[in-house]
Amino acid sequence: MLKMRHLSPKDYQESSWSGGKTRQVYLFPQTSHYGDRDFDYRISTATVELERSNFTPLENYERILMTLDGNIDLIHSDSQEVISLTPYTPYAFSGASPIESRGTCTDFNLIHSPRYEGHMQAISSEQASLTSSCSVQLLYFLVDCRLELDGQILEIKKEESLLVDIGAQQSELVIHFIQTKSPSAFKAIWIGLDKRNC
């Protein structure tokens, strides 16, 4: 059975990290704690406020990061590899990798256990629909948006999120975006998660 949960900023948890502030959008299981490193996955947005900062090491986790504004360089301290990130381009890497960030931005993050396969995609303002078979999906909205999902018309505000668990009985989820005028080139960030077959 399809389960939906509409999240607003009052549901998010805010905290600080060494380079700025973090807003935790969703943590699973909900009884877990980020600091205890006992979670399966965490979705968050954060500000990088220092020109140079070091990412929090996250052993035994995988990460996908996307900047929402501003360009940053990620330097892998162990290999000196430099990754230049521009807005709305996802980058996947090991949470254990020591990384120095250069530049300031607001970013969007997925941190997940290796037991899961994670995906991240920016949804452009022109995209009319999204189809995915991922068992857990989250949309974080960058603008006010109307959409049709499972026969329902939903009104979602900027910075709100829609969490969807499609369950085992449904093969895929189709989301239709009802066109709205927006000055932004992108209207949402999509996250998809599936358990790996171990």
Structure description:
The protein starts with a strand and ends with a strand. It is globular and about 50 Å long. It is built from no helices and 19 strands. Helices cover 0% and strands 57% of the residues. By secondary structure, it is mainly β. It has strands at 3-7, 13-17, 20-28, 41-48, 52-54, 62-69, 72-76, 82-85, 91-94, 99-102, 105-112, 116-124, 129-132, 136-141, 145-149, 152-156, 161-165, 173-178, 186-195.
Q: Return the CATH topology of the largest domain.
A: Jelly Rolls
Order of helices and strands: EEEEEEEEEEEEEEEEEEE
The oligomeric state is single chain
What composes the largest sheet?
Answer: 6 strands, antiparallel
Assigned CATH class of the largest domain:
Mainly Beta
Mean pLDDT: 92
Instruction: Give the helix level as a range of percent.
Output: under 10%
- What's the N-to-C terminus distance? 24 Å
Structural class: mainly beta
Biggest sheet strand line-up: 2-3-4-11-6-9
Overall structural domain count: 2
Q: Going by CATH, what is the homologous superfamily of the largest domain? A: Jelly Rolls
- Give the name of the CATH architecture of the largest domain: Sandwich
Percent in strands: over 45%
Number of strands: 19
Question: Which helices and strands, and how do they pair?
Answer:
Layout: E1 3-7, E2 13-17, E3 20-28, E4 41-48, E5 52-54, E6 62-69, E7 72-76, E8 82-85, E9 91-94, E10 99-102, E11 105-112, E12 116-124, E13 129-132, E14 136-141, E15 145-149, E16 152-156, E17 161-165, E18 173-178, E19 186-195
Antiparallel strand pairs: 1-17, 2-3, 3-4, 4-11, 5-10, 6-9, 6-11, 7-8, 7-10, 12-19, 13-18, 14-17, 14-19, 15-16, 15-18
